[in-house]
Amino acid sequence: MKAPTIVMATGKRKTAVARATVRKGAGRVRFNDRPLEIVEPEIIRQKVQEPLLMVGDRAKNLDIAVHVAGGGYVGQASAARTAVARGLIAWLKDDQLKEMFKSYDRSLLVNDPRRKLPKRPGGRGARKRRQKSYR
Q1: pLDDT tens digit at each of 135 positions of the chain
Q2: Any bridge partners for residue 114, and if so which?
Q3: Whose CA, among 13, 27, 40, 78, lies 20 to 30 Å from 116?
Q4: Does the domain made of 6-105 have the CATH classification 2.30.30.90?
Q5: In 3D, which of 8, 4, 5 has the Cα closest to residue 19?
Q6: Contacts of 2 (CB under 8 A, 6+ apart)
Q7: Where does residue 29 rank: exposed (0-12), middle (13-18), buried (19+ CB within 10 A)?
């Protein structure tokens, strides 16, 4: 079976949607067209690197480009993390790697379905209500 020339993968968290492109290359990882090494805040960099560190040397000859839109920076980081992990599994075709990701953290492979509750009348948010005074 011929190896793929390019693999696309997606990840979602809240309203953030990440698309990762994996191809043969020199081991470069780009996050929204910027090298991952200069991405700030550091928590984003660490979250996106997590699946790469778990794979180890097998990702040294892969170029990964991640494009993220929507949401805040933590949601974007989580969506990118899922997209990178899915892309690595699709490229490497390794069931053992898939099981390792699943046992470490299921959200590496599964999108987070949680969403924000809509605001309801009678208060400032979904749950908070105006107080009543009976005196």
Answers
A1: 566 789 999 999 999 999 999 999 998 999 999 998 998 889 889 988 999 999 888 888 999 999 999 999 999 999 999 999 999 999 988 899 999 999 998 888 999 888 889 999 999 999 999 988 887
A2: none
A3: 40
A4: no
A5: 8
A6: none
A7: buried
